Amino acid sequence: MISFGPIPSRRLGHSLGVNHIPPKHCSYACGYCQVPCVTQLESRRREFYAPEVVIADVMRRVAECRRLHQPIDYISLVPDGEPTLDVHLGELIAGLREAALPVAVITNGTLLWRTDVRRELAGADLVSVKVDAVTEAAWRRVNRPSPQLRLDWTLGGIADFAKDFRGRLFTETMLVAGANDSEAEVRAVADFVAGLDPAQAYLSIPTRPPFETGFAVPSEQVVVRSFTLFRERLANVELLGVEVPGEFGRTGSAVDDLLAILRIHPMLEQAVREYLGRAGLELAALAPLLEAGVMQRVAYRDEWFYTCRVSAAVADAAPCARTHP
Length: 325
Known about the structure:
The longest helix has 17 residues, at 51-67. Strands 1-2-5-6-7-8-9-10 form an eight-stranded mixed sheet. A three-stranded antiparallel sheet has the order 11-13-12. It has helices at 51-67, 89-96, 115-121, 136-142, 151-164, 183-196, 220-231, 254-262, 269-277, 287-292, 310-315, and strands at 3-9, 13-18, 25-26, 40-41, 74-77, 103-107, 126-130, 168-174, 200-204, 237-240, 267-268, 295-300, 303-308. The chain has eleven helices and 13 strands. 34% of the residues lie in helices and 19% in strands. The radius of gyration is 19 Å and the shape is globular. It has a single domain (3-249), classed as TIM Barrel. The protein is an alpha/beta fold.
């Protein structure tokens, strides 16, 4: 399923997700990522799905949401991998705008050194760019980039895009204990982000279960210090540290729609219970999927979450297509 949700988002309101990259093709292998581990660490653009297939799938879901009076604030390209790897990104953004809804793209910014990527991404209404580190050592510890990438290219591309972009620009910085949360590292990131002049800068910590262990949440003292350093340089800073309240949308089979969400977005058990309850189902309906290994129930920070198993996500991947330099 390419489209999923809508899901509640602190940044985007009711966000209808577009998963146009199969799991998991990305230019980063961030250990804190909630999506199953990278199967293709890459930085070359290519085709994954035909754009007309993606657009048709999203349009069907938009129509169904409207029929059910489910609100959509943004159509959001937030796939299993890095969205700018898709050589059809510009076509997708243009096609999705036909739904008369704003389009958002959540990117790690690694390909913004390319003029074609900046040009295509400029068609979005909102772009959120990851900036976790601005020093080589922290960048490699936290983001574990593709060997073909260079930090100076990445940061330069982000700065060039921010200078010319006419939509809303957000930044997000994930704090990882012992990796990029020192005062010097945070100060350097805050200085760089301030130079981008974003509409909103977000600091975040791993609130959902990362696919790998060993990536810890910073102490409360460190988080407060980091927030203060950002506030000294930027007027609009927000800390993303808790789950967002709100209803997850459903347009078809509750279980199928739930799986589509879990491939991208682990959910608290209470949220899953409420989601199924609106369809007249109980958690017991998930027992066959748990037993088959399609999804799993995991404990994280004293909460229970449901998430999609890597085997299920990879099995749903589309075959790779032609590559582009």
